[in-house]
Design brief:
five-stranded parallel sheet, 32% helix, six-stranded mixed sheet, 15 strands, 21% strand, alpha/beta, UDP N-Acetylglucosamine Acyltransferase, domain 1
């Protein structure tokens, strides 16, 4: 029963984060499910993961493939995450996305090389709370995008981004503080 409660709790947190108003209702669920591709993808991934955790085989994979969802059932995505556009998001099996993070379209979170982890044994990225990964970014390997940090569009990130910093470029480098850029309205 704990698995179903966790599923419902995570979906409620997602709804609150998507609407930005902190409310959750059935009408809001229907609106986001049918008219917001990112929520649709995240909900169906959570549903498939719930079915798999309850021992139901076959259906979870069918749900993901039917809706072209490229998020591994082994990935860990906490409640209150926003996938802004569900188009072409690929999230590998060991990736971790924490509450308040936002992922845009065409983002890939994966391992740098299969079978070769870091000294800690980790191969996939961790996206911390309130971090943003913009469209087309590729985050590979055992890296951490720190709390409140941003990865710019089309960046290739292979190293850690400290909390509150911005990484951009190919390969990505740290260019400024996220808070400073927001205050000035200028890009570094």
């Amino acid at each position: 029963m704990g698995k179903i409660r966790r599923f419902i709790r995570d979906v409620r947190e997602d709804l609150k984060f998507y609407g930005k108003d902190g409310r959750c209702s059935f009408g809001k669920f229907l609106r986001y499910y049918f008219f917001h591709l990112g929520f649709f993808v995240l909900f169906n991934w959570r549903y498939a993961k719930l079915l798999r955790s309850l021992g139901i085989r076959g259906w979870p994979r069918l749900i993901l493939k039917r809706h072209h969802i490229e998020i591994s059932l082994h990935a860990r995505i906490e409640g209150g995450v926003q996938i802004a556009h569900g188009l072409s998001v690929a999230i590998g099996e060991g990736a971790v996305i924490k509450r308040g993070a936002t992922i845009y379209q065409c983002v890939s979170l994966g391992a740098r090389r299969f079978g070769l982890g870091s000294a800690s044994g980790r191969q996939y990225p961790i996206i911390e709370e309130d971090a943003i990964v913009y469209a087309g970014a590729v985050v590979v390997g055992p890296v951490t995008v720190g709390r409140g940090a941003s990865v710019a569009a089309n960046a290739l990130l292979m190293e850690d981004v400290p909390p509150g910093k911005i990484a951009r470029g190919n390969p990505a480098s740290i260019v400024s503080d996220a808070a400073t850029e927001e205050e000035t309205g200028q890009q570094a």
